[in-house]
Design goal:
Elements lengths: L6 E5 L3 H12 L3 E6 L3 H11 L2 E3 L2 H7 L2 E4 L3 H11 L8 E4 L18 E8 L16 E5 L5 H9 L4 E4 L5 H11 L1 H15 L5 H22 L1 H4 L3 H4 L2 H10 L2 H21 L6 H7 L2
Parallel strand pairs: 1-2, 1-4, 2-3, 4-5, 5-6, 7-8
Antiparallel strand pairs: 6-7
Helix pairs in contact: 7-8
InterPro entries: 6-PGluconate_DH-like_C_sf (IPR008927), DUF2520 (IPR018931), NAD(P)-bd_dom_sf (IPR036291), P5C_Rdtase_cat_N (IPR028939), TM1727-like_C_sf (IPR037108)
Pfam family, one: DUF2520
Organism: Clostridium vincentii
């Protein structure tokens, strides 16, 4: 594959910066190097990606035409305040926040630069290993039209799927990502706690739940949400649901009811002739 000519630099050398830099590098993108307030982190990331590390932000920005800010959300605005003091005319400035839009780069047009949010829908849990699965990640892009084709072709060129979204939809988009990722962990924890009350230890609980969880996700991917629904809600099994509600504590009972109301709506689409009135009365509005 021909090397892409844009020169990419990273400000921030945590899990996201490590992973994207390595993934980009392995896909023949031109990763120049890293700047971090922690010099050791920049050195480590540079070694991992066979690139350079910088003692100061100015030299990184000078040598790159596309800057990825891969720091926690709460620091992006502060970093932009520093970046915009440098010579950035014509440069592309990106961040990787799921919830923030490119508008965090306030007045960027005044500097004749172009700001984008580029977010991989992916859980980065390890600096050194997460890049191995980034080929499966879906990327969302938000920002002005001027350099949009460059950004789109950058991500499409390494084989990932993309969706361009608006600044107005960033928060809602991030809510969806968090529910499908972080909140699932909370649900699994609830299930683990219930199994521990049945005599399982945590390791056995996770081992027993994993095939159930992974097969369900596999079914959603292959058959869609509606056709993947099984269980007592789908069957309108009022007796089982009644027993479930009676054995749960107050907090988990409310969670069960809330999720069941969502499931009933899906079940009605799957089984248009099935009567769900009894369990709707049990679950409540």
């Amino acid at each position: 594959m021909e090397v892409v000519t844009i020169r990419i630099g990273f400000i921030g050398a945590g899990k996201v910066g490590f992973s994207l830099g390595k993934y980009f590098r392995d896909n023949n993108l031109n990763v120049i190097g890293y700047y971090s307030k922690n010099l050791d982190s920049a050195k480590e990331a540079a070694e991992f990606t066979d690139s350079k590390y910088y003692y100061d932000m100015e030299n990184l920005v000078k040598e790159c035409d596309t800057i990825f800010i891969t720091t926690p959300d709460e620091t992006i605005k502060k970093i932009w305040s520093s970046v915009k003091q440098l010579s950035i005319k014509g440069k592309i400035i990106c961040h990787c926040s799921g919830s923030l839009s490119s508008r965090v780069f306030s007045n960027i047009e005044y500097y004749n630069s172009y700001g984008y949010s580029i977010h991989p829908m992916f859980a980065f849990n390890h600096k050194y290993n997460s890049y191995n699965d980034l080929d499966k990640a879906f990327f969302t892009i938000e920002g002005p039209l001027e350099k949009m084709d460059i950004i789109k072709n950058l991500i499409l060129g390494i084989g990932n799927k993309i969706k361009v979204i608006s600044a107005e939809n960033k928060v809602k988009y991030h809510v969806a990502s968090v529910i499908a990722s972080n909140h699932v962990i909370a649900l699994v924890q609830v299930a683990v706690e219930d199994l521990k009350q049945c005599g399982f230890n945590e390791e056995d609980a996770l081992e027993s739940l994993y095939p159930l969880i992974s097969n369900n996700i596999k079914n959603i991917g292959s058959d869609g949400i509606i056709n993947s629904l099984t269980g007592p809600i789908e069957r309108a099994d009022g007796g089982t649901i009644k027993n479930h509600l009676e054995c749960l504590g107050d907090e988990d009972r409310e969670l069960y009811k809330l999720l069941s109301r969502k499931l009933i709506r899906i079940a009605k689409k799957k089984n248009k002739d099935r009567n769900y009135r009894q369990i709707e009365d049990m679950i409540g509005d």
